[in-house]
Specification:
The complex is a heterodimer of chains A (331) and B (295). Chain A is mainly α and 331 residues long. Chain A folds into 2 domains: 3-78, no CATH class; 86-330, no CATH class. Chain A is built from 13 helices and no strands. Chain B has 2 domains: 13-172, no CATH class; 193-290, no CATH class. In chain B, a hairpin with a 5-residue loop joins strand 1 (16-20) and strand 2. The chains are: A mainly alpha (331), B alpha+beta (295). At the A-B interface, helix 1, helix 2, helix 3, helix 8 and helix 11 of A face strand 2, helix 3, helix 5, helix 6 and helix 8 of B.
Amino acid sequence: MNKRLFVARRQADWKAFEALLDRFQKGKRSQWEDDDVGQFSRSLREICQDLSLVQSRGWGRSLTNYLNDLVTRGHNTFYRAPPARLQGLKDFLVSGFPRVFRRNLWYFITACLLFFGPLAVTWALVQHEPDLARRVVPFQQLEQAAKSYESGTNAGGSSWGKTRDDSGERVIMAGFYTQHNISIAFDCFGRGILLGVGTAYTLLYNGIAIGAIAGYLVGTGRHAKFLTFVISHGAFELVAIAIAGGAGLVLGHALLHPGRRSRLEALADRGREAIQLAAGAGGMLLIAALIEAFWSPADIPDLLKVTVGILMWILVAVYLGLSGRWEDRAS
Amino acid sequence: MSPVAPLNSGSQTTLDHVVVTPENVVLTFQLAGPGSRLGAFLIDLVIRMGLFSAAAFISLTAGLFVFSLSMAALLVVYFALDWLYFTLCEGFLRGQTPGKRMFGLRVIHESGYPISGWEAAVRNLVRAMDAAPYLAGGNLGLGVYGVGWLAMLVTGNFRRLGDLAGQTIVVQERRVTVPREPVILSKIEPLPRLDLGRWIPPITTLALIEEFLERRLVLDYGRGHAMCRDLARVLSQRLEYKGSKELVERYPMAFVARVYATFHPVEAGDDWRETEPSATAGKIGSNPSSRGESR
């Protein structure tokens, strides 16, 4: 067949397919008709054949490009990912995230060692010798932290100074914690791509800094105020940072030990799980921010706070350890 | 790879991303270079700064009444613009941020599918790493994308670290609306058969001629002939052309056009070339004084 004849015969179909494509790409799903979908599928396959014909005959680049673009758009429309549903979010929170967490438990444990290890060591050292804290954390920051936990005030942990209007400040802090903590978690994840070194650095750095401040506060006699403040949200906050770190380590490990795949394949494949860990950690930090802003500094008897705090830790452990297990067995 | 490779091998190879579809067809995507991606990023930066300014204005105004709530909202807006803007745009707007749309770019999976929200999230959380090193102010500062730039050069198909982790590529979309019809060659006379030998040029050569003539208007008259001369000489040799030497040497474009017309005859009822104004048809072989006029 002659190229001209070919174009003359097929052109009408191509134009029709273009119109159909525009409808599918712009219009709403509910407006599609059954016939259209069948027609689309048929046309796509026909045009695929046209494209390979043109390619094999060598009928010039402009025609190839045109058909190539038609098939590309058709391909993109036809093989579109299923639309996101609210059900999907619920499934992710109830079972998806804890399952991914358990599948990658060793990364979490490693991240914990990198994070809680230095935290504990620094805490112990600084508590024994509070002056050491100044070598790690700027003095002003220490002073500010110390001021926040003076007995008698309720503005715990805030760097915004003390105001009479407590509730107002808490709202601001909720925003601040959200922005600040989730940024750290996402950063911690993203840096994993540097063979995990970036993640390890972030974990160590934050572990040492947090340990130093905690040790300083406890060592200088502010422990009652401090411990009751952190115990509740700490369950979500600290664990979430370690999870985000674990997600970063997943990326780094995929690059270092790809197994029987190319490094890039391993990275992309493991990245699909890592991002779920990071997203879950982000969600946990959102909860932590709300607790830290509204519950932790509230004027509540210490005993109640400690009880609730312990319950929070148990809740997190149960959620991550057990949620979705029954479905595991069922399937 | 593809049978048309001889026509477009060379400088194009690094810009093409080749995918084989489930229909067993070879699809070619044109990768977007760092330049247009930088442009798209800057547009997005302006949009994000604009949104933040608007949010700041609103929250400062509202702050007169509910100070703390509006401050908290502003912080959350800042976080969203910093970390979620790209993910949400690419996840929900089919792989395009407003900046990318402006430059005709789209993020797709490397196998040609649209990206899912997760893939958009991976490539945009790793973005923080690509953006390093930062100008003053740590992560609050503006990233200069040194790492991303380097990765784009090293990977060869313009992928930054986020693209590698998310298995995505950024493609330049072409919107070719109508097949670009070749030149009007119907008015060109075929070469007399007696002047030619037995050799028949392959279809790829004819396609090359067609494509050259189709794009001849981007060249000026003298340049067009000069570029065509090599082809015309080789063709006349292979065809054992016995006609006028002047045609080959002085008007090579006219010569190759006539070769095309000889071996690619117009058939009856064959008038699909509606896009070309017929006025330019005769210009190929006209005299040199009409230089530039055909544009």
